[in-house]
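Example A, followed by Example B.
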Amino acid sequence: MTRRVRALVSGEVQGVGYRWFVRGQAQDRGLAGSATNLADGRVEVVLEGRDDDVLAVLRMLTGPGAAGRPTGVAVADEDPRGEQGFTTA
């Protein structure tokens, strides 16, 4: 099954280091998506790909001991939009 997850993450997440960390974790699992700094200090993370891989990255990003904590998560079971790669902004 494929999944698309949009998570708003707060905590020690602002800056290019966190976005590149998210990117690396996603690419290691073959996921598409993005990580974008928001003006309010949170980061929007969008992940698309295989269900197990998306959820594993999301747990790693927001689980115990992680730099971030989720402030909102939207999960959609759908076909990925066909986006390739991963973007950081």
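Example B, a separate protein, is given below in the same form.
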Amino acid sequence: MLHKMIFALGLLLGSQLAVAQEGKYQEGVHYTRIDQAAGESVSDQVEVTEVFSYACSHCNTFEPYMQNWKKSKPDYIKLNRLPVAFGRRAWELMARGYMAAEMMGVAEQSHVPMMDAIWKERKQFRSLDQLADFYAGFGVDKDAYIAHFKSFAADSQMRKGQRDVQLFGVKGTPTMVVNRKYRIENNKNVTSFDAMLDVVNYLAAMEHAAASAGTTAD
């Protein structure tokens, strides 16, 4: 009898915890639903997008938090980055530079060093040649990097990226987007980078659970 009571109590507490977790964050308060969300994916992986710029000081401050989060994030989260330009020539140079690095397979290993070069070493990248010199330090051929930077594929990636920025309703950086459906940014209710990433984890878990169950998260 005692065992049954303990088991029942455990179920009750578990149910209460699940309800509490379900209402932990609220749409319109801690995150924003993207109006023109993409079609539902059949994959049980959850896409998390970091919208950033190397020219953004807040993105540099955010990066150590991202690095720590990456070490502990669930395996079902697929992280990608979206560099933004916001119509600024210097930001566009860096955004296209990142995309060229991504096309050549060195974006991941060069990402933190690029942040450090700009914000710790105070280097300024004002030309494609300077960017190519930097990325050549990661084993890519300088001429090949320049060719990728100027390529039609890079043009297409830039256009797609900026369309996504508009679709997501991104006004500043850093911003996080979960499954192209939810936007998370600092506001009066999400006052720290740790809080931002906690909301990301919450929404990603919700999306993963819905995909695993074959339903749609609301």
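On Example B: The chain has a mean pLDDT of 88.
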